[in-house]
Amino acid sequence: MLRLLRQWVKKKFGAGLPFLLRPHEMGRSRFLAARFKDPHASSPFKEGLRLDVDYRLYLPSRSSGKDSLPLIVMLHGCKQDAVSFAEGTHMNTLAEEGRFAVLYPEQSKRANPLHCWNWFESASLAGQGEAALIARLIDQVTKRRPIDPRRVHVVGMSAGGAMACVLAVRHSHLFAACAVHSGVMYGAANSPVQALAAMRSGPSAASIGEARRLAGVADESGVMVPTLVIHGDRDKIVNPANADQIIGQLKDRAESIDPRAGALLASGERRIHSGGRTYRQQEYLQQGRIVVRKVLVEGLGHAWSGGDSRYEFNDAEGPDASRLIVDFVMQHQRESSPIVAARTG
Q1: Local confidence band at 345 (pLDDT 50, 70, 90 cut-offs)
Q2: In the chain, N or C: fewer CB atoms in 10 Å?
Q3: Of the ranges 62-71, 115-124, 183-192, 261-270, which one carries the lowest mean pLDDT score?
Q4: Helix, strand or coil for residue 125?
């Protein structure tokens, strides 16, 4: 009956009256699957050029085109995909509770056999390559969906955490906040061999120096993205030393971008028991504002804390990293709309 009514309305009134043709889209939640094709990719024959990326987008129930939802961008780790990352982290459940959208870009096997984001490639480190492709995807989704561009946040796990660091430096105008779980600092490596070495032992002194140089170039037009760093102190795949290196880089970056604001000052460390484990939390403040938060989870290996252990790289014991992340990023919003992602590829 409803289908016949739509046909009659369309025949009588044409393409108007969309509220009759598409009755009330403010219904169930949606977990959409799509592919983004980069409209700015100039040549399919350019070496290393990525033309497209698959993704999933979660929109909470009762949302409509009139909304202005926060967006969390979730970058999975190696051997993961969008669906397993969503299920493992329970982020869609929190999105339903807190009424925000979640975007899950998905690395292809063609680009990396282990589905790792190529955070160490020179193109990405320059803000181009995969980093630019993800940034353009975010830009398109923000424009086409009911998203508030002032409340876009990037989150990553492991290789996804390393890519989140890249995006927060090279495409900082897109993001209100960032969270890095078991990740590696921006510029820690520029080859697969260096990447493995940095993961195992932390970046070398030479890599840290090069990363400082690269970040300094990006600072010229960058903004400081408030960041939460989470790591397990028993991580055997990505050494916990990497968390300290991320903190050090963020401290240098914040002080470089706005020297007048003064140094980042560390608060006292708090030990908090949650979900069967204890974690140590420390804040880094600039003019009384929390710019960086560090959470080191005691006894946690290379896994998403508080995740669904049916999926690889998830640990069911707390604390619940997803809730810690949501609580942190939702405190932040950009003061103005973001600058459109870079057009070079």
Answers
A1: very low
A2: N
A3: 62-71
A4: helix
Catalytic residues: 158
Alpha-carbon distance 229 to 292, whole Å? 8
* Segments making up each domain of the chain, as ranges: 29-329
The total of other beta-carbon atoms located within 10 Å of residue 219's CB is 18
Q: What is the dihedral of CA 172, 174, 178, 180, to 10 degrees?
A: -80
* Pairing outcome for strands 69-75 and 270-274: unpaired
For 123, the token pair is 């193109």
- CA 159/CA 117 separation, integer angstroms: 6
What is the model's pTM? 0.87
At 161, list the tokens.
């955490």
Supply 280's token pair: 């140590």
> Look-up: residue for tokens 């990396």?
112
Q: State whether residue 34 is helix, strand or coil.
A: strand
DSSP state, residue 169: H
Residue 306 CA to residue 181 CA, distance in Å, equals 12
